[in-house]
Design a protein that fits this description.
single chain; alpha+beta; 7-stranded antiparallel beta sheet; 6 helices; 33% helix
Length: 205
């Protein structure tokens, strides 16, 4: 469980960045370009929702506006602020198996944010629990740190939140051991980004 300074720091940052969420809700997101496997249904060892496939095989329909927020200009700006970047990082996005995935290409390595959309909260909870069982060492995030949502994290950089019928999976496992000017651990950086996204979701849903 996180200490009070970590929790309050993340909440303060989310509050600071929330001012741009109104624009994020209606801003265009990068269009999906490739498919990625569904991280909650893979039969092999748990992996991040990555990979490429033919765009023509993409799932019918498309991601919700809330899901696309994880890859739009506002979230890119938020991540740039956290990392003190001079320019927004390059991203690739995809939509497959009802999962919208955004990969941020950072100097420290690839950083992956995905949203798994389910038909209803009950189905989402099943996917959420399935993913937890596949992530080694996944431990619940408790107290103020979970912002009132079911959540868990791993020590190597994965943070997962459940809100309504969506699962937010932030994967920093491929990043360097120290991230950004604050030299944050990958899990702490993933948590920080998660809270900024959830702040926007809460504001608009």
């Amino acid at each position: 469980m996180r200490n009070p300074k970590q929790v309050m720091g993340a909440l303060a940052l989310a509050s600071l960045l929330l001012s741009g969420c109104a624009a994020a809700a209606g801003a265009p997101a990068t269009e999906p370009q490739s498919q990625s496997p569904d991280p909650t249904t893979a039969s092999a060892a748990p992996v991040s929702p990555r990979g490429t496939a033919s765009a023509s095989a993409a799932a019918a329909g498309g991601p919700s506006d809330a899901s696309k927020m994880v890859c739009n200009d506002e979230t890119k700006g938020d991540i740039s602020k956290i990392l003190a970047l001079k320019a927004a990082p390059r991203t690739d996005s995809s939509w497959a198996h009802s999962t919208y995935t955004c990969t941020y290409h950072l100097a420290e390595g690839p950083f992956v944010v995905s949203v798994k959309e389910s038909a209803d909260p009950s189905s989402a909870r099943k996917h959420f629990d399935t993913l937890q069982a596949k992530l080694p060492g996944a431990a619940p995030i408790r107290g103020l740190a979970n912002l009132g949502f079911p959540a868990y994290q791993t020590t190597d950089g994965s943070v997962v939140f459940l809100k309504d019928n969506s699962i937010l999976y932030v994967d920093a496992t491929d990043l360097a051991p120290a991230v950004g000017p604050e030299r944050a651990a990958p899990t702490d950086f993933a948590y920080q980004v998660s809270t900024t996204i959830l702040a926007c979701w809460t504001e608009h849903h």
